Amino acid sequence: MAEQKGTDVTTWTTTERIELGGVYLEGDLTLAEHATGMVLFAHGSGSSRYSPRNRAVARELNRRGFATLLADLLAPEEDNRRRRFDIGLLADRLVGMIDWVGAHPATTGLPLGLFGASTGGAAALVAAAARPDDVRTVVSRGGRPDLAGPALIDVRSPTLLIVGERDEAVLELNEEARNTMRVHAELRIIPSATHLFEEPGALETVADEAGDWFAAFLTPVPGNRHPALDHVAAAPRWG
């Protein structure tokens, strides 16, 4: 177990072996002192739990007091092009991890959000539709919501879609998804950014946007309408 002390919060990271339907997947679980919520990451095609971009976002979330789980969605022997784009399989794995997080002694009871990148964004949306009572909110980075298929209109969790301004094809797909979804959905366009957000400051902006969104929604909900909806409605928009 690795302990890290930052300026705001102390975190502990352990590598967990998660059994899902006879397949064992590894995940890095980071617990934040006095955590206020839990964020489960879904990586994109050809990536893994070691995605440097997802890890950068996770560090910012940890700094803000969120627990995170970055897990592989495919075992090494399964990792091929066909399975990388099998959204149904990836979503099923994510649902299994949602259940695992809900049962884990250190994370049970924490409000849960999903963060998906690229094809992982589609898997996160499908998983959210399958677990509407467990998933409080979804954030997608450069995601492919079109690959969520008919599950897109079944999502009941408020959703933030983050896309680079110069990622034109994916931006169009996300605009269509925002207009299709029946739940509160926001689109944030990161100026001058491309698909991988490699431009100076782009990924930091993604992490800030995600952190603000999770901070708004991963809180107790006293009534039917989450008060964070009023917060995000008044937030500045780029799209």
Outline the structure in words.
The protein is of the alpha/beta class. 33% of the residues lie in helices and 26% in strands. It has a nine-stranded mixed beta sheet, with helices on both faces. The protein starts with a strand and ends in a 6-residue tail after the last helix. The model is unreliable at 223-229 and 231-239 (pLDDT under 50).
How much helix is in the residues? 25-40%
Q: Tell me, briefly, the overall form.
A: globular
- Name the structural class: alpha/beta
Q: Could you name the ranges where pLDDT drops below 50 across 5 or more consecutive residues?
A: 223-229, 231-239
Helix tally equals 7
Q: What is the tally of beta strands? A: 9
The Cα radius of gyration reads 16 Å
Task: List the strand order in the largest sheet.
Answer: 1-2-3-5-4-6-7-8-9
Order of helices and strands: EEEEHEHHEHEEHEHH
> What is the first-to-last residue Cα distance?
41 Å
Task: Write down the overall mean pLDDT.
Answer: 88
Major sheet summary line: 9 strands, mixed
* Proportion of strand residues: 25-35%
